[in-house]
Amino acid sequence: MEQIGKWNAHDSSKPEKKKQPKAQKNISDVIPKYQGKTAIPFLQQFQADLNAMRLSDKYKSSFRTYIKTHEDFDERFVDDNFGIFEKYEIEAILSELTFSERFLEKYFSVLDKDKIARYQLFSESFYQKHFSDFDAETVLKKGKNEWRKKENRSKQFAVFLRLKGVQF
User: Fold this and answer.
1) Alpha carbon distance 21, 12 (integer Å)
2) CA of 83: how far to CAs of 79, 80, 110, 122, 127, in Å?
3) CA angle, corner 142, sides to 120 and 148, nearest 5?
4) Were 32 and a residue from 39, 112, 133, 144 both cysteine, which residue would form a disulfide, CB within 3.0 to 4.6 Å?
5) Cα Rg for the chain, rounded, in angstroms?
6) pTM exceeds 0.90
7) pLDDT tens digits for 32-71?
């Protein structure tokens, strides 16, 4: 009985916390590192890098390389900071990164339709919705969508294209 009493008094579902001495932390243990430098928010780092790239002789290639190689440079970042980009930069971003249809819809009026047609993945229904905005040959011959090939199209989409007079 005595053992049962001790067993009930000691809740085995909660592991015992052993007191460990507090280790002193260095400031470098608390502040994350960014390529050997103290981390700063990506936006601030990007703005500094962008200003340097814009002044560089290799601006266009540097910018394309930058957006391809920085994992923090993604749809969310572009969406949150859309206003800081110049026309060329938006076109380069559109040709290097893949965006969701939600993003494409949000900025559709200001994005280059040819770049969307060539470099972005989107659904048949997105294409149907924006059919008059795109060149059919660009979408169906030069685009990246799987359904550009006849055998990968849905029956409804094939009928839609025939009704529109598209022969690709």
Assistant:
1) 24
2) 9, 8, 11, 24, 26
3) 80
4) 39
5) 27
6) no
7) 443 444 435 899 999 999 999 999 999 999 999 999 999 9
